[in-house]
Amino acid sequence: MTILLSTLNARYAHASLGLRYLLANMGPLQEQTSLHEFVIGAKTTEIVERLLAQSPRIIGFGIYIWNVEESTRVVAMLKRVAPQVTIVLGGPEVSHEPGEQEIVRLADYLVTGWGDVTFPKLCGEILHGPKPLMKVHAGVQPPMAEIAMPYSLYTDNDIANRTLYVEASRGCPFKCEFCLSALDKTAWPFGLDTFLGELDTLHARGARLFKFVDRTFNLNIKTSLKIMQFFLDKLAANPDDPVYAHFELVPDHLPDALKDGIRKFPPGALQFEIGIQSFNPAVQALVSRRQDNAKAAENIRWLCEESHAHLHVDLIAGLPGEDIDSFARGFDQLVSLKPHEIQFGILKRLRGTPIIRHTEEHGLVFDPYPPYTILATKLIDFQTMQRLVRFARYWDLVANSGRFANTLAQLLGESPFANFMAFSDWIYARTDATHRIALERLAKLVAQWLETRGMQRSDAEALVGSDYAGRVDAPAEKARPAASVPQRQARHLAA
Ligand code: SF4
């Protein structure tokens, strides 16, 4: 095969949408192009051997924050054992600050930004001349209607076993300084009817789990409603074989028409990922995030109380101007709204994002290695930041996992952040670990913690035991939700 498109995905279940877009847009070169996905953690020699077994002339790599280190090793090895193969890079991680990156130094060419048109053009020039003179090629953004959609490239195996990423639009009109989408300044929609036609074909082929990567699903309400109606029609026609759709929402924009649509979805069919990031207006202003906090809180409460949507809400620790007290207040406020999951992220310095303008004034110290996590700020020292990192991990294990649904309220009490931080510090002191804690052991530790907080041992064990008895994957299982519902969401549904 002449041209290979390759990347290392974070998990096997993540099918790369970016590579499929490139393949769909290769034009006359498509027949000579094939796709080769790997998963991080794979042996470098195996990846290189498998790629070279195709006898490629060109290999294009999709580079992301999660794979840049391993991809650098792959490219370095390729350049040693097969220097005749031309290496082209693309993807968000190498689209900014390319001069500072080892992988860019090793590669032959780089396409920054949109690759749909520029990558095939560059490949044509590499194969047939004239030889491209420049190493870095700024990706040309074509009219959306000229971009071929990639959905037919999802194989039957992808449909059966992997998350299907889809997008009705690219870009975001907001300018949150920690986010790469802030550089877009606007959003560009794909032709809606064509897009829905593609979804229809995927559904007919058996796809039931659709993850929208649009940064703001509820930007254009007319479009949102049409997309939701597509799924409602599928649910009505096939109630015993339901679909599951995941969208990202901005929290302060939920007009009544959208609420009416959302209300119609049954349990286990809809998930929203909602970014709050910070409830502190001063922090929001510093990072240029426009958000009506009162409206956002009201909408999250409405979604929790009046809809069946599964809610995954994001907060970020380590933003400039945020100290522990202000973060704790935001966390407690969010817990009181009762979303199913709180994604407690730690700020990362994504290449190209304007957040670095605060570095000096706010004492931002980032890890120099991917994923460039914040290590300290003027208001949160390194040790405290590490406590927050562990908090986030334990929160995921205990709260977001849905495995301790009955116990969680007891664990959090009236001061969720303070109480969970105390639990997090205690469990870390006991285990010295944040990973590889078996579920049985974790349950015992949770019960012991409750005991140290004054609960009778028998009561603590009974409470934790009630979660065990009710959990979805327990042997004495309740009615299992539809197969399209991801496991963690299924646990929340069953709680
Ligand atoms: S955080 Fe969300 S709203 Fe803000 S720029 Fe990024 S995608 Fe847009």
Automatic annotation (TrEMBL):
SMART domains: Elp3 (SM00729). The keyword Zinc does not apply. GO terms for molecular function: catalytic activity; cobalamin binding; iron-sulfur cluster binding; metal ion binding. GO terms for cellular component: cytosol. SUPFAM superfamilies: Radical SAM enzymes. Its cofactor is [4Fe-4S] cluster. The keyword Transmembrane helix does not apply. This is DUF4080 domain-containing protein. It comes from Massilia atriviolacea.
